[in-house]
Recover the amino acids of this structure.
């Protein structure tokens, strides 16, 4: 008997339904001797590209379909059926399937969920009388269900309707399925048998499938949990799958099943044969049917080019030379022209001219919108990108290599990633759709997968556990894969309590097991945060689309599918820092009338580097994290290239590769740089002999073997493959010896290259990041008030806003409280009256935004802004129409102080007035013809009520704004802290190493970075109003304070100082306590002050 | 229909198909076409572990529907549950 082809298989990409990844299904089918395999995910082609890729690799034929809901014209459900694309028809079948799936998402979404009407299905399924797809009616269709009813005619009537709608030859088939369930229920042998009889009597071909949703029977348990997540109900409250038969059964078992259903060997054989006939019809030829691997870019005409695209590219790039190098001398110009020619030759040979023109076109469009743009990634190594305005980094000045980005050795479309202002990202997407037309553009999607906490939440739901119970456990799930949950229970101190519960509680035991099962499964599809697909006008024949949260169509394929499908993906990433910087520049111009060209600022400003070296880098792009601040202290950067190096060093690769310490030793003269051979010195001088960058490896290989940089990049990639690395070694050793390098040099260099593996970093990427790093540092140095206003408004960093407030205070930036007459929905820079006689006191400050008031609605904010200014509290009450709650909150945080005249009244007085207004049952309507008795005459604010204490003010601010505006939250604890001898963060740097200290503060960051040793280390950063202190918790310290390590907000930490460099100091923690608990105890012991 | 859950002793043929069973001391002989199917368990109420690879028996259980008679009783339909090496009589359709 020949092999069996499964035609109905849901992969894990059928969200909350399928269990197994496509690659595993294909492998299993191949192992069983199959020559083809279908994927038929629910509601989409989400796993199709991965399936095709896996099949091609295994040399079996891919078949692709979709499991879809069908309705009649008025929306009555007709059940689910499988739509399979026919293959080897020049892509007609594939295109029809794509359009059917897209239609189900666009038209069905409104009322029936994802579904397509039978008429529309028929319209796409048949063209010129030829069937492009086959529609399979299985047990989940109305026909299938009707075969179980007592009314024999019902099923025939259903089938008749389908046959009439899908009239072309071989558009319709009956799908016989038996999961060997209880006789008389869905998916039983009896139903399968009846469906077959009816198919035969009505002349519709029948095939057999197993309606697969998992690889092995054991996976059915996982399917139960997914069913629960889909139904949003615990197991036991909905009808579960009947048994565990929906697995990818072997050919032998499928053949036996056919016999069990038909009870007739001849009929069984015919059924299996019909299945193979349909399979043959649906075998896809990926290049011809799906455009597999064929690059697609917008047509020339849409880019405004007639004639040869390469000539257009040549002209545009050359025209960029005057723009980018206006004052260049002959020598530089020769270098530029030579480099450009080389790059263009490569681009031309690869046929990517249109691609570059497309990206340049988008970049120009973004610039024309007045939005900040920067490149990231290896694309910054291309001079062409720089000249076309795609990248802002000069690859010649920064010594970056084109070959790392693109070479004739690699034929896949390169990734060019563009960073833009996050606040404008959606505008840009809409413009791209407008410019290229919605037939050529879609957004990219992203499959998010189950990870630790998410997996645990849905597992808890399935078991019917209480939300609070789950939250309590999930809270302590920290940095470990849910796949190894049980293992983590044994070793993680913060899970010790839960581990005990697990031992005693059966349900908790199950929770651990199913959480492990869910880990890594696709969870749901969403819009990719930055990807846009640009194609030609046939794009929608190649990818199905569905509406995104943004309203714009989104492809069902994800980023990994782009390269195999030959699709051009453009990453337009919204970066908050770009928004924050653009905001600061606008505020500088608005308030000071000073125009700043941020991209034109010289990159060697001494003041800027001086600020960076203090390690007060909060708010600066890329170098504000605790680890980067520590590294800044050790590194002490003095020039732009230092920033590139520092950003590149603080990455998992270079950290694991142990590159930081030798680099710093070389830099500070603790060790003499080792260049191995004088030929390598020019390459490695910038990093004191340490190989950090991919570019270093390329240059070394090229220098010592003469292989050329393009080939060198291929070798670099091969170094990561255990199988390919030996070939690189042989080549390197032979060629280097031929070029006269000594055996010793060759061995030494090879040891470094071999160890380099995946540890290095692309310098172009580091340089692209260093640009906004430098720019933000420059703004922080020279325009701190405007820069902080930008940070507050766009919140770009990793820290809570209240820490930035603390940093602003430290910088001497004035914080102006929320004021209903001056605040808006942004943090504006405003003039501020002098508070001191200090001539250096800034005359401007940052006005807090109304949006921070908890519970304030957008409508309220808009009304306040529209009605400003107000003349008194009653006027505000009448015209801004705040809710009672908002009005009171505004009064509590002092937003009415100035309006009420805080010089004459206390905040207590204002609150009394506000409560009086709030007590009025109905807000009077303003009528200019009527005197407003209670309101119009004189504002009647009482006097003599008690004012708020400073502590009370901060308490209210924290409650309502989640920020301490008037003073630092720690200030109230200062008497205790002083008594205990707690060290302030800015004093740490003056202490000797190994000094025993206590530090206190608000937790601002907790990190568990990957460590070379594999042991977990926890970094906790505290803010005490004078800056940050960083504490490191190793194993024992973690044990001592595991209960508060991850959750408590205000902490006191004891430990020893550890010097890490000139300006670097951190604390090796010994223990930690909850500051608030200590404070309560301390207060209780204080002698009462006599009244 | 009568629901119950009682141990029985079952004799099977070469294919594992029941031919007769002993219930409450009485021998029942099975007609020639018993039907096997698969039902499920509510493992979330019963199981203590469900880790990957534990095996399908946590979830699935083999069932047989058959018609049988004894000396005292005429042909009646019965449902049998078969798990590991145990047989239980779970339903009588009378």
């Amino acid at each position: 008997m020949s092999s069996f082809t499964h035609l109905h298989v849901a992969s894990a990409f059928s969200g909350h339904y399928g269990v197994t990844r496509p690659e595993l299904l294909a492998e299993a089918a191949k192992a069983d001797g199959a020559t083809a395999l279908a994927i038929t995910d629910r509601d989409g082609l989400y796993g199709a590209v991965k399936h095709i890729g896996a099949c091609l690799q295994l040399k079996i034929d891919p078949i692709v379909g979709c499991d879809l809901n069908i309705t009649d014209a008025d929306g009555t459900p007709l059940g689910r059926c499988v739509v399979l694309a026919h293959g080897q028809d020049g892509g007609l079948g594939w295109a029809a399937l794509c359009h059917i799936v897209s239609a189900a998402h666009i038209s069905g979404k409104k009322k029936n969920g994802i579904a397509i009407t039978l008429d529309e299905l028929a319209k796409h399924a048949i063209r010129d009388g030829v069937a492009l797809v086959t529609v399979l009616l299985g047990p989940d269709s109305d026909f299938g269900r009707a075969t179980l009813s007592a009314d024999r005619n019902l099923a025939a009537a259903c089938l008749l309707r389908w046959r009439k709608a899908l009239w072309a030859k071989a558009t319709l088939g009956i799908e016989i399925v038996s999961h060997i369930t209880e006789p008389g229920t869905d998916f039983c042998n009896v139903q399968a048998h009846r469906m077959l009889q009816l198919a035969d009597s009505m002349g519709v071909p029948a095939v057999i499938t197993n309606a697969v949703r998992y690889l092995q029977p054991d996976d059915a348990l996982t399917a139960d949990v997914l069913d629960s997540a889909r139904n949003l109900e615990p197991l036991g409250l909905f009808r579960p799958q009947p048994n565990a038969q929906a697995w990818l059964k072997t050919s032998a078992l499928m053949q036996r099943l056919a016999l069990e259903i038909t009870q007739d060997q001849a009929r069984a054989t015919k059924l299996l044969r019909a299945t193979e006939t349909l399979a043959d019809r649906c075998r896809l030829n990926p290049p011809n049917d799906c455009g597999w691997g064929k690059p697609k870019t917008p047509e020339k005409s849409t880019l405004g080019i007639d004639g040869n695209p390469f000539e257009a590219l040549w002209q545009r790039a050359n025209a960029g030379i005057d723009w980018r190098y206006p004052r260049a001398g002959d020598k530089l110009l020769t270098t530029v022209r030579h480099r450009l020619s080389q790059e263009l030759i490569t681009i031309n040979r690869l046929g990517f001219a249109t691609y570059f023109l497309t990206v340049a076109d988008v970049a120009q469009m973004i610039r024309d919108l007045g939005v900040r743009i920067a490149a990231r990634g290896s694309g910054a190594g291309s001079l062409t990108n720089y000249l076309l305005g795609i990248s802002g980094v000069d690859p010649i000045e920064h010594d970056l290599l084109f070959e790392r980005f693109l070479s004739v050795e690699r034929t896949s479309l390169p990734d060019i990633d563009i960073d833009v202002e996050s606040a404008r990202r959606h505008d840009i997407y809409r413009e791209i759709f407008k410019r290229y037309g919605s037939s050529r553009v879609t957004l990219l999607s992203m499959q998010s997968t189950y990870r630790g906490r998410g997996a645990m939440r849905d597992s808890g739901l399935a078991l019917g556990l209480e939300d609070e119970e789950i939250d309590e456990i999930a809270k302590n799930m920290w940095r470990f894969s849910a796949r190894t949950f049980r293992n983590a229970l044994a070793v993680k101190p913060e899970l010790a309590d839960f581990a005990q519960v697990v031992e005693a509680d059966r349900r908790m035991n199950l929770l651990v097991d199913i959480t492990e099962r869910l880990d890594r499964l696709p969870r749901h599809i969403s819009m990719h945060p930055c990807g846009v697909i640009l194609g030609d006008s046939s794009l929608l024949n190649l990818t199905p689309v569905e509406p995104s949260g943004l309203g714009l169509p989104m492809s069902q394929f994800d980023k990994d599918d782009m390269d195999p499908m030959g699709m051009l993906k453009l990453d337009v990433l919204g970066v908050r820092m770009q928004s924050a910087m653009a905001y600061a520049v606008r505020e500088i111009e608005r308030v000071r009338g000073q125009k700043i060209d941020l991209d034109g600022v010289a990159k060697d400003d001494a003041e800027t580097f001086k600020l960076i070296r203090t390690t007060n880098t909060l708010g600066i792009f890329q170098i504000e994290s605790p680890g980067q601040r520590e590294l800044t202290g050790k590194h002490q950067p003095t020039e732009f290239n230092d920033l590139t190096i520092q950003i590149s060093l603080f990455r998992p690769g270079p950290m694991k590769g142990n590159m930081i310490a030798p680099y710093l030793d070389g830099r500070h003269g603790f060790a003499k740089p080792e260049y191995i051979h004088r030929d390598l010195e020019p390459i490695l001088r910038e990093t004191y002999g340490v190989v950090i960058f991919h570019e270093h490896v390329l240059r070394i290989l090229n220098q010592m073997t003469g292989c050329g940089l393009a080939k060198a990049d291929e070798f670099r990639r091969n170094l990561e493959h255990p199988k390919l690395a030996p070939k690189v070694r042989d080549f390197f050793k032979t060629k280097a010896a031929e070029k006269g390098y000594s055996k010793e040099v060759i061995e030494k260099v090879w040891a470094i290259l071999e160890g380099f593996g995946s540890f290095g970093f692309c310098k172009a990427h580091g340089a692209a990041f260093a640009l906004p790093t430098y720019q933000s540092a420059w703004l922080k140095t020279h325009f701190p008030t405007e820069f902080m206003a930008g940070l507050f408004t766009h919140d770009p960093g990793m820290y809570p806003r209240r820490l930035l407030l603390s940093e602003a205070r430290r910088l001497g930036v004035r914080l102006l409280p929320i004021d209903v007459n001056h605040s808006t929905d942004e943090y504006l820079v405003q003039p501020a009256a002098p508070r001191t006689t200090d001539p250096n006191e800034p005359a401007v400050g940052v006005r807090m935004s109304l949006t921070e008031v908890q519970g304030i609605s957008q409508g309220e904010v808009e009304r306040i802004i529209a009605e400003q200014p107000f003349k008194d509290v009653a006027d505000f009450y009448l015209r801004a129409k705040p809710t009672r709650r908002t009005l009171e909150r505004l009064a509590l945080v002092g937003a009415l102080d100035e309006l009420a005249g805080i010089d004459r009244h206390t905040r207590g007085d204002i609150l009394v007035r506000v409560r009086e207004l709030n007590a009025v049952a109905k807000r009077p309507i303003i009528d200019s013809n009527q005197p407003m008795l209670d309101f119009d005459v004189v504002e009647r604010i009482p006097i003599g009520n008690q004012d708020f204490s400073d502590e009370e003010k901060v308490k209210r601010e924290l409650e309502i704004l989640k920020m301490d505006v008037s003073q630092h939250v720690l200030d109230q604890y200062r008497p205790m802290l002083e008594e205990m001898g707690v060290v302030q963060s800015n004093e740490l740097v003056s202490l000797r190493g190994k000094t025993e200290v206590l530090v206190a503060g608000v937790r601002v960051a907790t990190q568990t970075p990957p460590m070379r040793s594999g042991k977990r280390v926890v970094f906790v950063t505290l803010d005490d109003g004078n800056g940050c202190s960083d504490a490191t918790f190793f194993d024992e310290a973690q044990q001592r304070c595991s209960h508060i390590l991850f959750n408590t907000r205000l902490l006191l930490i004891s430990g020893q100082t550890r010097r890490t460099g000139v300006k670097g100091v951190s604390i090796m923690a010994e223990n930690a306590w909850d500051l608030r608990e200590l404070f309560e105890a301390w207060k209780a012991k204080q002698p009462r002050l006599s009244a | 229909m009568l629901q119950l859950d009682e141990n029985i002793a079952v004799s099977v043929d070469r294919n594992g198909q029941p031919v007769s069973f002993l219930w409450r001391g009485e021998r029942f002989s099975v007609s020639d076409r018993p039907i096997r199917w698969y039902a499920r368990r509510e493992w979330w109420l019963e199981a203590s572990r469900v880790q990957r690879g534990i095996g399908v028996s946590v979830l699935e259980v083999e069932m047989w529907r058959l018609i049988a008679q004894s000396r005292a009783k005429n042909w009646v339909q019965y449902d049998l549950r078969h798990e590991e090496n145990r047989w239980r009589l779970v339903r009588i359709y009378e």
About this structure: The longest helix of chain A spans residues 330-350. DSSP finds 48 helices and 24 strands in chain A. The longest strand of chain A covers residues 522-534.
